[in-house]
Amino acid sequence: MDARPGPDRSPRRGRTRPWAALLLLVVLLVALAAWLSRPAQVAGLVLRQAGAALGLEIGFDGAAEYRLRGVPHLMVRGLDVRRPGSDAALLTARRAFLALPWSTLRSRGADLTVERVELDAPVLDLAELQAWLATRPPGDGPRVPTLTGGVRVTGGAVEGGDWRVDRIGVDVPFLAPGRPVRGRVFGELAMGTTRLPFHVHLTLAAPARDAAVGLAGNATLVTDSWSLEMQPVLSARLHAGTDGLGLDDMRLGMRGRHVAPERDALRFTAGLAAPLRYRDGRLAVTPAALVVRGDGTVPDLRARGGFAWKGDAALDLEGALQQWPRAWPALPEPLAGVSTPLPFALAYTGPADLSGPARLRLEHGPARLDAGLRLPEVLDWLDHQPRGTPLPPLQGRLAMPRLELAGATLHGVEVEMSPEPDAP
Question: What is the model's pTM?
Answer without folding.
Answer: 0.79
